[in-house]
Amino acid sequence: MSSLDGAAWPRYAGSGRAGVLVVPLGSTEQHGPHLPFTVDTEIAAALAGALERRRTDVVLAPAVPYGSSGEHAGFPGTLSIGRAALELLLVELVRSADAFDGVVLINGHGGNAVPLRAAVALLRGEGREVLAWSPSGDPRDSHAGRTETSVMLALRPGAVRMQDAVPGDGRPLAEVLPVLVESGVRAVSPNGVLGNPLGATALEGAAVLARWEDSLLGAFDTWRSALHG
Q1: Strand (E) positions, 1-123?
Q2: pLDDT in tens, 169-228
Q3: Positions of the chain with pLDDT under 70
Q4: In sequence order, what DSSP letters do the residues of 69-81 get, joined into one string?
Q5: How deeply is 170 buried, as exposed, middle or buried, from its count of CB atoms within 10 A (0-12, 13-18, 19+)?
């Protein structure tokens, strides 16, 4: 186990590679009236931390807390660097990590998916070893709904204001996506929620985290085996 925030450069110097660098990728954006702006970053960081704890050849990097969140711009407090800037950031970040065997990008925000795919394609075309992974979920519960609320109750319950939790738009994401892309989340859900957070529990959140961790570990192990195969 290793983390850049607790080490100095000599630890990674020498003739051999330093293991796999794991970078949590999140966002700073509204998550309804009951959750903090940092949900996506906290979830990505928690999953990255689980990978570091459960695999010996992993080095944990600090999280990237800003992403492509323009669809949430209608809500004050949302901070976004946009698709082009995020793609460039990820490309240059991975290019700078040649001391490591490879880089795993753990993404907690769906809005990052397009620039993340583009960055990974470019980097792989340059011969770099990169894995991008994101947790999956119910398309009718895609933002600040039961899943994310439950996970935050498991991770940081003091940051969840269940007294302010209200249902949002519960249609499948694919159904509302055209309006969301054209006019933003606020045009679909005035309270910023896509799903229903009512009934969320820490126990359910812990189970979701465990499922996501197993999926991440499986993807990581398959990727590492292919590299060494």
Answers
A1: 2-3, 20-25, 58-60, 102-107
A2: 999 999 999 999 999 999 999 999 999 999 999 999 999 999 999 999 999 999 999 887
A3: 1, 15-17, 229
A4: -GGGTTSTT-BB-
A5: middle
Rounded to whole angstroms, how far apart are CA atoms 26 and 39? 8
Contact 90, 103 (CB under 8 A): no
Rounded distance between C-alpha atoms, residue 165 and residue 153, angstroms: 13
Tokens 């711009």 belong to: 73
Which residue range forms the structural domain that includes residue 80?
A: 2-228
Q: What is the rounded distance in angstroms from the CA atom of residue 220 to the CA atom of residue 205?
A: 22
For the CA atoms of 63, 145, 176, 138, what is the dihedral angle to 10 degrees?
80
**CATH label of the domain that carries residue 170:** 3.40.50.10310
The amino acid at 89: L
Q: Indicate the number of domains in the chain.
A: 1
pTM assigned to the model: 0.96
Q: Which residues contact 202 (CB under 8 A, 6 or more apart)?
A: 150, 153, 154, 157
Sign of the CA dihedral with 122 first, then 123, 127, and 129 last: negative
Contact between 22 and 58 under an 8 Å Cβ cutoff? The reply is yes
47 contacts 132 by C-beta, under 8 angstroms: no
The predicted pLDDT at position 14 comes to 73
Torsion of CA 25, 157, 55, 26, to 10 degrees: 0
